[in-house]
What we know:
Layout: H1 5-18, H2 23-42, H3 54-66, H4 71-90, H5 117-126, H6 132-147, H7 151-155, E1 162-163, E2 169-173, E3 179-183, H8 186-199, E4 212-213, E5 216-217, H9 220-234, H10 241-254, H11 259-266, H12 272-278, H13 282-293
Antiparallel strand pairs: 1-2, 2-3, 4-5
Amino acid sequence: MPELLDDLHTMWQRDLRAADKSPRTITIYGQSVRFFVAWLASHERPATLDEMTKAAVATWLGDLADAGQAPNTLRTRFRGLRRFCNWLVAEEFLTRSPMAGLEQPTAAAAPVPILSDDEIAKLLKATGGRTFEDRRDHAILRVLFDGGVRISECARLQLEDVDLDDFQVIRVQGKGRKIRVVPIGAKTVNALSKYLHDRRPHKHADSPALWLSQRGAMSVDGVDERIRVRAAQAGVENLHAHRFRHTAAHTWLSSGGGEQDLKRLMGWSSDAMLAVYGASAAEERAREAARRMRLGDRL
């Protein structure tokens, strides 16, 4: 009987959990398998191991590119399915990966646009009220913009991770479950202080999670939804959490902050990420640097 890809995918997810991979990592890896299975079904092909051939994978990736998938998304899909194929080989379901010899998509992604001061002001104004939701969403936006943290890091914050007095920092859990401490400014401290005050009488106040909704602790998707709701209210288009992170990196570099310090604050393990995040407004920073140096005025 042919091996079903859905069954193998379930086994792989169990292996990933046993290897202590984060839930979000498991989800992202698994999306590649699920989307490939859906693609097979759309072409009236059985979702079995026999159908996972080099030609099929290459055609699927090509269809994704033709459909206008962003380069970063293509690379994510490629890496997720490659990990699954490598697992199939390791578990001896296959003798050789069908992705051996396939090149990873390398098209350069367009730099993520940074948020303008006007857009940030509109977002903060949209959350400037006194309701519980206003206090919470305002604090979330401040943490994302000021700390430059990933949305998953923001969503996973616990009460014990917040220090508003002694050091004025938040402690976040990044990729690979690495812990790092991120400084926050006085306005973010103030926003968190007001939110924590209004959080006390909340019906889920005994939860260790920092961010609460009426249903309890907020998930990554819950935080993402609030960002999009507030963006619509503020009239800010195409807003996603990563734009805050790119904006924080740009602001740091344009203010003269050191690259290695930024790398540590952002939780990057590779210098390559400096180029990725620095690209969002690199030309603007270069122009400002040229104006400051005034090389043509030296004679």
